Amino acid sequence: MSWIALITIIHYIIVAYVVYRAMLRPYREPASRLAWVVVAITIPVLGIILYFMFGETSIGFIRAKNMQKLKSEIFQNRFKAAINGAIIDTIPKKYHHIFRIGQSINGFLPVDDNKYFLLENSEAMIDSLVQDIDNAKHHVHILFYIWFPDKSGLKVANALIRASKRGIVCRVLVDAVGSRKLISSDIWKDMHRSGIHAVSSLSIGNTLLRMILGRVDLRNHRKIVVIDNFITYCGSQNCADANFDKKDKYALWVDAVVRFAGPIALQNQHLFVQDWLAATKEDLPQMYESEQPNDIIDLTNTRISKDMSERANGSCPSQVIGTGPTERHDAMSDIFQVIISSARKSLTITTPYFVPNGPVLNAICSAARMGVVVKLILSHNTDSWFVCAASHSYYPELLEAGVEIYEYQSEVLHSKLLTIDEELGMIGSANLDRRSFDLNYENNIIFYDQKLTKEILKRQQSYIEKSLNVTIEEVNGWSKPSLLWYNINATLSPLL
User: Fold this and answer.
1) pTM given for the model
2) Domain range spanning residue 345?
3) Mean pLDDT across the stretch 347-355?
4) Residues 254, 152 share a domain
5) CA atoms within 13 A on the CB side of 149
6) Hey, what's the torsion of the CAs at 404, 410, 412, 417, to 10 degrees?
7) Are residue 175 and residue 242 in the same domain, yes or no?
8) Position with higher pLDDT, 340 vs 8
């Protein structure tokens, strides 16, 4: 037998193995299975390599096994509420099913007595965070996907160094890829020297080995801040300047973040502790088993600026949602679907990346067809040409269903907001795309509060005022090559 024949046989054996794995992989859409089978068969060698790099949603067998073990052995009885536990009376029964779905993911019930403040912009968020760190009395826990050693990043890092030097326990967890600039910088070394416990999560190590063991692009996309078990931040902003890419004229990123003070912080604390344990093997049970110390219970008014304390609102029943590749499949997709389907008057969605799966797309279109006023606010400028092109492929169906589409101009709109009926909303790190649904670790907060929802709506309306309305006439005028390009990218999206 010639070498060519032997290599050919080996190749087809490997192709058959890849097809076998693709067909047996659980929780995969038929279109995705078919796409990967076609890639493996029609693209010699490269198709097989691409499958092992991106074809399976796995952080690696060992990592996944360890995380499941940690969750089952350590967290199972610490924060789990009974599935028949009562939903608080301040939430109308018509919304109980939303919080039940949320409870099925992490076990959290909605909690009341939370004060909130919607930060004005990225700079205000950094200033507020620095002030809270400077006033911390026990501990500061921070997790960011992106943390750059720029002006904003250094302000937060230096605040942590000051806090650590006065005896505050500071823990920092960053994504190994998203925050690689910080990890390789001098300030990272200074943070360690000052006593800050700073580590990275989901490190790649040997790229070839990581590709074999699991996908390299599954990232911890969460943004979590917890201070003294009482203050937490939730939103889209990373720890970086709004214009972190000085070379890009569209690099000013517009984000939305809410600062919460109250029991909801303990639920974000739980997510942080879980991620910290997975990265370090260090358990921190005292962080979520005990209430906040007596001397920090009244922090809402004493630890923030006069302007913020006068404008802070409560009680804001809220619930944390934490999803990821080792959580229940389709968890974030389920949350979006159930909230969207619950809208009866209005639905406003803001997201920078819009590549929905079939159920979420159908839920949005169905809401519009029922007479709900549906507004979808997207960013005209993004850092992903692929996502931008794929998003456009959904415009005809959305517009025909009656959805209003707005494209925010000039800057990059990075906010991730959802509101319904001027009563209930959601804010967090998750985009309305397949990466947030299936691949990345994300954290959101669902809230029932008319005042906060109207504040978020007001912010969304400010985005609309800086947007261009996309019309059905405009879309019908797209050229055939443009439509082909958009649809090709959308067709490839299941390969993610």
Assistant:
1) 0.86
2) 331-439+446-495
3) 97
4) yes
5) 12
6) -30
7) yes
8) 340
